[in-house]
Amino acid sequence: MKKRMAALMLTMAMAAAPVSAYAADASQTLSVAVTAEVKTLVQWAASEEQASLVNNQAQEGLFRMDENNQPQPALCDTYDVSDDKLTYTFHLRDGIQWSNGDPVKAGDFVFSWLKQMSAEATNGYSFIMNDYIVNGQEYSEGTVEADEVGVKAVDDQTLEVQLKNPTPYFTNLCTMAMFFPVNEEFYNSVGDQYGLTPDNMVYCGPYVITEYDPAVGVTLAKNDNYWDKDNVKIENAKVRVMKDASAAYNAYQSGELSQVELDSTNVAANKDNPEFSQTVDFRTTYLQFNLTDDVVGNVNMRQAISHAIDRNALTEFVLADGSVPGNGLVADGMSGDGEKTFRELNGDIAVYDVDEAKKYYDEALKELGEVKSLTVLVGDDSVSKSVATFLQSELSKNLGLTVEIDTKTMQGRGEQMDANNYQMGVTAWGADYDDAMTYLDLWTNGTPYRGNYVDEEYNSLIADAKTQTDDTKRLDDMLQAEKKLVAEDAVVSPIYHKGSATLTKSNVKNLITHPIGVPMEFKYAYFE
Amino acid sequence: MVKYVLKRLGYILVTLWIIITCTFFLMKNLPGTPFDAERFSIMTPAQQEKVLEMYGLNDPVPVQYVKYIGNMLRGDLGTSFTYVNQDVAKVIGSRLGPSALIGLQAVLIGLALGLILGVLAAWKHNSGIDYFTMILAVLGVSMPNFVAAALLQYFIGLKWGVLPIAFWTSWSCSILPSIALSFSATAQVARFMRTEMLDVLDQDYIVTARAKGISQAKVLMKHAVKNSIIPVVTVLGPIVVNLLTGSLAVENIFSIPGIGSLFVDCIKANDYPVIMGITIFYAAFYMLIVLLVDVVYSLIDPRIRLARGKEN
After folding, report:
1. Of B50, B158, B258, the CB nearest to A254
2. Is residue A350 helix, strand or coil?
3. What does A31-62 look like in DSSP terms, one character per residue?
């Protein structure tokens, strides 16, 4: 009896213990989770979202995104654009400082931009400057010297940039982490140890990094040298590495996290939760056909496949994580003419229509003869695999076509596509900036990875859009190009646009997230 | 004895060299480059060339191998590709501590609990405690540690709120993961101890000891346990290596910066220098522990002589 009593009391004591015993600092500290390690903070080496997230709080570029994803002047005070739209002159704010007290100079931008354009940039993002800035490409290939590249410090407060073509979204690009300045003097004093520890970096953003461990995350504190510090309300923040989705969910419930991204198992259970919100990322998962393949080289075959995929069923029942059907290549919500989005202007150009699919399929069979089976190449993550299984069942059900699934590691899938060793592959592209060109430009190089698509009409539309000074004409070129690529030639079949479902604690206000580029802004957030 | 240990160390070096060589060439056959496949594909050939050159990946693989061995002998394991500019030794070192701490605690829990349960089960053979131990042993061995981890996190961390859910901020963060990891060790040790004890308790010298009127406790502790513990030492070697080298699942669930997740991450990312570094570490560690177990074995059981033949 005594024993039972003791056991009962112990159980009661445990039950009575406060649920949030370890959530003491959550009300003061903004805490978000990332699903992968913050392996590097060196901006020309980092390509992952988590590095971009951290750098965007600790650093700042010429512009910063507002809540409507529009660039607002940040370190830059004003700027002028020449009449031919090729020369941008940025005037830096007065008195802006690094966290060590050094002034932020135009030369600090030139320094980091040149690094990003050079071969030293291992993040694969050199194109984001080289495509636009005069002599960037040549510099990265080592054929011109730094002083011939179109980015110059006229004086300490004036930065002049020469572009190859008119680029209406150039100020958008300037909000990205690759465009942040790096204190040249400081960098040279620490050399290749730059960015490895909090002390080996200096900061010009709303926060400074006080702790950094790639596998644990980053601790941030408000930067007292920041020009707009009066508008930064939250003093302390944390970016924590949590690789396990259900662990992150538990941590959110216990109050250790201010916000958590939900995986599909938790989306349904939380749809009515007032803390729930859902956004569509500018990221499209699509089926890339290899045009040099005997079977899917046939346009009718590609059309048949593309029309046989019920994208609604996929996003609603299989993914169920907030993703939306990919009825076009360019993601929903990406900017169009200022009033309507690109997607609204071009409509649904990849649709599910079994009758059409069958018609195309019969036509294809007439031209090809017998088709035994097709192979779809996918990465080995669980989402890609379920997408492939879904495709397999759709094509079998709607066309009677047998599809085999070839699963490879992400690296292996990429290599196999580069080597032209595939029929069709499930692949994805996340927009780098808010303009359709971020997608459409990919299919101009005719590489195996892009299905060996070489089309004069398409290329001339893109080339025209790139040099066009008339924004309406430029948009029109891109609308036509997307139609040509997806609806007419069916080079790719868009499947879905990735969505994210998140829970945010009700006392956290104005924690802005962006569908592209820098993922999140701590600067404007506050506790209620 | 010294001669024997030196000889074994010699073997270890040769084995290590074979392991390094095999791993190096196998690793170079992994598909892809250490760089993001999607991003790498949009670089111009000239850029790709330059990037590969910077990391010394343009040389033929045998040349890379010779260079690597040369650097390694000078104590330089290179710098990581993904943890940009970080020394491999430093990267591994920083991840070793948490895994070792959790592993060590798990070993201690497993050993203590396992021994107690094993002894009790054998002593009270075919009683409630015996059945309980056997059920626990089957569960402990068959239940994957991530199930235990998830349950502990949910109930003890979230529902009762008595220990941290995850993270690596204080010692208390290491308790739940240690418990989660200790289940299988407990089970293994308990089973071995029980079987061995049952065997020993049947021996004539135990009967003699009892006949001499020595107390039950003394018989157990002085004669039975001491003689049953030897086989446990054998299994302890692999258990220790297994636990101290980290667990991907438990580390991920509790957000612990350990070496288990580092190993998987670096293989996925083709981070060659880190893959090599961890392989060398794991292999050397394993072989040294096995050697240590053999030495300890001879110390606790005089019947076993390490070096037989000529020297005797």
Report:
1. B158
2. coil
3. EEEESS------TTT--SHHHHHHHHHH---S
Q: Is A315 helix (H, G, I), strand (E, B) or coil?
A: helix
* Mean pLDDT across A509-524: 91
- CA-CA-CA-CA dihedral for B163, B164, B165, B171, to nearest 10: -110
Question: Residue A433: phi, psi to the nearest 5?
Answer: -150, 165
Phi-psi region of A115 (alpha: psi -120 to 50; beta: other; left: phi over 0): alpha
- Joined together, the tokens standing for residue A484 give 């040509």
The answer to whether the CB of A427 falls within 8 A of the CB of A410 is no
> Looking at beta carbons, which residues of chain B come within 8 Å of A429?
38
The conformational region for residue A236 under phi > 0 = left, psi -120 to 50 = alpha, else beta, is beta
- CB B120 within 8 Å of CB B129: yes
Chain B contacts in chain A segment 325-384 (CB below 8 A): none
Contact between A92 and A159 under an 8 Å Cβ cutoff? The reply is: yes
How many other C-beta atoms are found inside a 10 Å radius of the C-beta of residue B52? 16
Report which of A168, A516, A129, A177 is spatially closest to residue A330, judged by C-alpha positions: A516
Nearest one of A217, A325, A319, A331 to A262, comparing CA atoms: A319
Predicted confidence band of residue A79 (pLDDT cuts 50, 70, 90): very high
Instruction: Mark yes or no for CB contact B37/A19 under 8 Å.
Output: no
Tens-digit pLDDT profile for residues A473-495:
999 999 999 999 999 999 999 99
- A367-407 pLDDT, tens per residue? 998 888 999 999 888 889 999 999 999 999 999 999 999 99
Beta pairing partners, A521: A512
The pLDDT of residue A3 is 46
Closest-CA residue of A relative to B82 is: A39
Strand partners, B160: none
Please name the residues in contact with B268: beta carbons below 8 A apart, sequence gap of 6 or more: A409, A410, A411
Which residues in chain B show pLDDT less than 70? 37-39, 41-42, 304-312
User: By the CB < 8 Å criterion, does B48 face chain A?
Assistant: no
Residue B62 corresponds to which tokens in the numbers above? Answer: 């045998």
Paired tokens of A83: 């009449």
Q: Is B51 on the interface with A (CB under 8 A)?
A: yes
B273 contacts in chain A (CB < 8 Å): none
- Give pLDDT, residue B303: 73
Place of tokens 């020449």: A82
| Nearest alpha-carbon partner for A383 in A429, A315, A449 | A315
Confidence of residue A19 (pLDDT cuts 50, 70, 90): very low
Q: What is the ipTM of this complex?
A: 0.85
Query: Which residues, including other chains, have CB under 8 Å from residue B60's CB and lie 6 or more apart?
Result: none
The H-assigned helical ranges of A44-160 are 49-58, 106-117, 127-130, 136-140
In order, the DSSP letters of A197-221 are: SGGG----SSEEEEEEETTTEEEEE
For the segment A398-420, what is each residue's pLDDT rounded down to a tens digit?
999 999 999 988 778 888 998 89
SS3 for A528? coil
- Please give the Cα distance from A423 to A287 (Å, whole number): 10
Query: Which of B54, B57, B85 has the highest number of chain A CBs within 10 A, making it the mutation to test binding with A?
Result: B85
Identify the closest residue of chain B to A17 by CA–CA distance. B160
Predicted confidence at residue B307, as pLDDT, reads 55
Whether residue A1 is predicted with pLDDT greater than 50 in this model: the reply is no
Tell me, yes or no, if B42 comes closer than 8 A to chain A by beta carbon.
yes
Residues A183 and A465: their CA atoms lie apart, in Å, by 36
Measured CA to CA, the distance from residue A184 to residue A426 in angstroms comes to 42
Token pair recorded at residue B202:
């049947």
Q: CA-to-CA distance for A34 and A49, rounded, in angstroms?
A: 9
